[in-house]
Design goal:
This protein is of the alpha+beta class. It has helices spanning 15-19, 37-47, 96-110, 173-177, 183-199, 207-215, and strands spanning 27-34, 53-60, 78-84, 118-121, 125-128, 131-132, 134-141, 150-157, 223-227, 232-240, 246-250, 255-258, 262-264. It is built from six helices and 13 strands. The strands form three sheets. The protein has a five-stranded mixed sheet with strand order 1-2-3-8-7, sandwiched between helices. It has a five-stranded antiparallel sheet with strand order 12-11-10-9-13, with no helix packed on it. Helix 3 packs across helix 5 (183-199) and helix 3 (96-110) crosses helix 6 (207-215). It is globular and about 75 Å long. It starts with 14 loop residues before the first helix and ends in a 6-residue tail after the last strand. Bound molecules: biotin.
Length: 270
């Protein structure tokens, strides 16, 4: 009498399968496909769904990036959004993008990337070998002058693949380590890393986060190309302000603070 082997799928597909990967007291909703996990999270924030809660998708049909860009979202990479309600004044959110970037950096390092090669690029990109390997889109809801109602931290990690035609050259963990991490392992590491960093976050005390972010920042002290909605210019990156602004020194010697825009390596010869 022999026993019959039955193939068992180990791919987690239910909310419960995913919940055990996240820290205690944290919910997870897994969707095989959705428009955007940030959109799902914002809707849940408005509906009063209990938080903290992660939304994870196998793929997104309309993944959103910063400054109105699209985020290509086919299976194999991680698409996730964290919904929480910390009740902060809007200015107190200034260091959140840097804290999230550091949690993403922790994750890439735990997935096998060399710490020296994992850098943070203002405002909240994380690079591996000077190429973009993740995207972070933070959205919050608050009435002017009031405390935040809810915050959505959207995080995409390039695990298996990356867009070939991105404005800023991209890469993936697979391309950098020759090992493709599975989405569940990456989510487990990311959700715990973000949880730990949020637990010890003091929004009123920017210095610690800024110091840590600056120690692994890409391009500090270097002349870079800056693109905003209105202009493209060159400037030397000087540092990070407590309010999240990037301090620049323009070619004419003037100082300037940047609050919205993108930073690129200048084309050779500029
Ligand atoms: C960027 O432009 O760099 C930010 C990209 C953010 C992408 C993530 S993927 C999960 C979450 N859902 C979205 O629609 N966007 C974010």
């Amino acid at each position: 009498m022999g026993c019959k082997l039955v193939a068992v799928s180990v791919k987690p597909t239910s909310h419960a399968d995913w919940k055990i990967l996240a820290p205690a007291q944290t919910g997870v909703q897994y969707h095989e496909e959705c428009d955007s996990t940030n959109t799902l999270a914002s809707r849940a924030g408005s509906d009063g769904t209990p938080t903290p809660l992660w939304f994870v998708a196998g793929k997104q049909k309309s993944g959103r990036g910063r400054r109105g860009r699209a985020w290509t979202s086919s299976p194999g990479n991680l698409y996730s959004s964290y919904l929480f309600k910390p009740e902060l004044n809007i200015p107190e959110l200034a260091t959140l993008p840097f804290l999230v970037s550091l949690a993403v950096r922790d994750t890439f390092i735990r997935l096998g990337c060399s710490p020296k090669k994992v850098q943070c690029k203002w405002p909240n990109d994380v690079l591996i070998s000077e190429k973009k390997a993740s995207g972070i889109l933070i959205e919050s809801s608050a009435a002017p002058g009031l405390k935040t109602d809810f915050i959505v931290v959207g995080i995409g990690l390039n695990l298996m693949h990356f867009p070939e035609d991105a404005q800023f050259a991209a890469t993936s963990v697979a391309a950098e380590t020759n090992n493709t991490p599975d989405v569940t392992s990456a989510f487990k590491i990311l959700s715990h890393s973000l949880h730990e960093r949020l637990q010890s976050w003091h929004p009123e005390d920017a210095a610690g986060i800024i110091k840590e972010w600056r120690a692994c920042a890409w391009g500090m002290g270097m002349r870079r190309e800056i693109r905003t909605n209105d202009e493209t210019f060159h400037a030397t990156l000087i540092g990070l302000k407590d309010d999240g602004g990037l301090s620049l020194r323009l070619d004419n010697g003037d100082n300037k603070q940047l609050y919205a825009g993108d930073v690129f390596a200048p084309p050779s010869g500029c």
